[in-house]
Each structure stands twice: as C-alpha cells, then as structure tokens.
Amino acid sequence: MIEKRRVCIITGTRAEYGLLYWLMKEVQSSSKLELQVIATGMHLSPEFGLTYKQIEQDGFTINKKVEMLLSSDSETGIAKSIGLGVIGFSDALNNLEPDIVVVLGDRFEIFSAVIATMVSRIPVAHLHGGEATEGAFDEPIRHSITKMAHLHFTAAEEYKNRVIQLGERPDRVFNVGAAGIENIKKLQLLSRADFEKSISFKLTKRNLLVTFHPVTLEKSTSEDQFNSLLNSLDKLKGTNIIFTKANADTNGRIINKLIDQYVSDHPRTTIAFNSLGQLRYLSAIKHVDGVVGNSSSGLLEAPSLQVGTINIGDRQKGRIRATSIIDCLPEEGDITKALQKLFSIDFTESVKHTVSPFGDGNVSKKIVEIIESVSLDGIVKKSFYDMLQIYEKV
Q1: Per the domain annotation, does 144 fall within a domain?
Q2: What pLDDT digit, counting tens, does each position of 334-387 carry?
Q3: CA separation (Å) from 133 to 102, 137, 149, 216?
Q4: What is the pLDDT of residue 249?
Q5: What percent of the chain has pLDDT over 70?
Q6: Helix (H) or strand (E) holding 11
C-alpha cells in the first residue's frame, strides 16, 4: 500500500478559509493525499466569532489549534502575536510531521506559520503570491513568504512573473487563477429572499456591502479614513448598508467600534457582522449595488459577479484591476463622488460587461494534481533564479 502524502493546510481567518475550502475538499477526496488542518488566529477568538466551529461543521477535522492572538491590536501586540505563533506552530508541525504545508496570502498569522515551517525543513506551497498591496504590511509579508516557499500558485500571469522576478524557479511557479473565483463557480449562492432571511435584514432599492480594514503601513489613519467613509454614507438616501468588521490588524478595533456606533445610530438601514461566512458573503456581493471599502474581495470576487467596487485608499494599490473598480482617495469628497459614479446609469450598465482577469475558477483541481505528482526530494534546497544572467545569455 502506497503511503499518502500528508498535506497540512493552515488557516487563520474566516476570509482565508473561504478561499481554501474547495482545496481542502479536493485534498480530502484525493486517494494520494491525507489532509491535515491547523486553525489559528481569528478562528480561535470569541471576539471574531470562533469561526473554527464553521470548519468543523463543514466536515473537516482540525488536527491542531495554535493560539497566538493577544487582546492588543497595537504594533507591539501584533509583533508579540507573531512570536507566539512561531512557538505554537513549531510544536504543532513537530507533532503532525506533514510532508508539505499549504498556506494562502499574506497575513501575519501565516507569516509566523511559514517561519516555523521553513526552520523545520518542511516544503511550503503558497497561494496568491506575487501580488502587490502597497498600503499594508501584507506586502512585505507576502514576498517574504514567497522566498520561504517552494511551490507557488498564483492568481494571474502578471503575478507569476513577479514571483519569478523574486528569484523563484519558473518550473515551480504555476498560474492557476484566483481561489475566490472557484467559490463563485461552485457555490449555489442564496436567492435575495433566502439571503435576507439568513441575515434577518431586508434589502431595499439600493444596497451596499462595506468592508474596510486598517491601512497598516500608515500610522493612526484608520479612524479618520473610516469616519470619512461614514460621513459619505450618511449623505445617501434610500440605501441599506451591510457592514463586515475589520480583521485583527493593527487598529482594527477602532474601525469595529465605529461600525457598532454607526449601526446603533442607524438601526433601520444598517447591520453589521463579525463574519458572514463565504456563502452569505458572496451572496451579499451578488445582491448589493456595490462593494465599498478596501478589501481584496472587491477586486477579486466582485468583478466575477459583475458588481461594482469602490476601492478606497492605498491598501490594495498595485493589484490588477477589472473595469468595474472605482478608485478614490480616503477623503469624504472623493468617496462621495465615487458613490455618485457607482449609482450612475452609465456605470451600472458598463459593470454588466465586466470580465474578471483571474481565471476560470478550476483552481483546486489544478493545485492538487501538482501536489500529488511533484517530487519533494531536495525541494527545500533552493537556488536563486537569476533573471539578469538569463537576459545576459540571451
């Protein structure tokens, strides 16, 4: 009997788990792979909804839980959380002994996991590398993970080329498309009536989904920027608003406190959630007139559902954009103009013809086929792919 390859998937947030769901299902059903799951970060926090329970409800076994979040979202608190994560992941990996670890994205929880994995000489497969988010410390974290990873699954050809530019061997970099598109293709999204019932909130003629996170490379801007957004939303008439709260980033609690106060002041037209879960979140996008804020979902998933996005500030600066994206400054006047454009007849009509630049959604199958077949012998010994020398030879 051939021994199965142990594939350990690590997840730290509700949004990231939603992107990894189909990959986890594909690994789980593979005759050549054994799925291991480590839950960490926000999944284990009562403040953020204890979303590890959703992972278990979906039929997955969580092999290890790594507690690492402190109650503080200050710079010092986040740095200490990273340190705690490295310690916890070291123990978990030593116990599970995976053949390969799979991670997605650019958050600090995943950074600490990959540090421990790299030191443990375990191969790392990284999804969504090569992207750019110039306003967040996710940017250097993402590229750091790329340099510690051994297999790379990117969301677009441009991102694949950037990973190679970072010195990664081309034969270990695969453009498979964006994981979020797969959810849209495979999930049966809720009807408007079922969605309203699921959140106990009635939509109206015009509706918005607001998801705003701190711009972590800017100091003390979260409160001012989010207040500018709230002031612009206040000017809207006949519009209902669904808020999803900020992640456990630096100063995220400031935003969440402002959301709670705004919803308390506008109980008939607003509602807020720590986590909608992937099905309700994508259904929300489907049934609103626009996604407002600075979440990557506005750039990745919303275009595939042909819904417009107002992208505020620099948090997502550098990412590929569909034609349905309206970029604006984090200032009240600019946000107000963007909202006017979002609801305009010309823009509403143009959004119907949006084409996503992030693939066909068949992501998990492509990744699993590679993980099943790739040789891991000696893969942790990396050589720098020097593009300069390649050009000189040409």
Answers
A1: yes
A2: 999 999 999 999 999 999 999 888 877 789 999 999 999 999 999 999 999 987
A3: 21, 8, 19, 11
A4: 65
A5: 95
A6: strand 5-11
Q: Is residue 138 located within the same domain as residue 216?
A: no
Closest to 282 (Cα-Cα) out of 309, 310, 301:
301
> Phi-psi region for residue 101, left (φ > 0), alpha (ψ -120 to 50) or beta?
beta
Number of domains in the chain: 2
Residue 360 is given by DSSP the state: -
Question: Does 313 share its domain with 164?
Answer: no
My answer on whether 120 and 95 are in the same domain is yes
Output the pTM of the full model: 0.80
Same domain, 66 and 134: yes
Nearest one of 25, 31, 6 to 100, comparing CA atoms: 6
Q: For the chain, what is the mean pLDDT?
A: 92
Euclidean distance between CA atoms 260 and 283, whole angstroms:
23
Q: What is the mean pLDDT of residues 188-206?
A: 97
Q: Which pLDDT belongs to residue 145?
A: 97
- Cβ atoms of residues 277 and 14 within 8 Å: yes
Radius of gyration of the chain (CA): 21
Tell me: do 127 and 234 sit in the same domain: no
**pLDDT over 80 (residue 308):** yes
* Residues of the domain holding 305: 191-351
pLDDT at 390 over 80: no
Residue 291 placed within a domain:
yes
- 141: tokens are 């974290």
- Give the chain's length: 394
Report the CATH number at residue 203.
3.40.50.2000
**Which residues 6+ apart lie within 8 Å of 286 measured at CB?**
189, 195, 305, 307
Q: Which of 41, 47, 36 is nearest to 15 (CA)?
A: 41
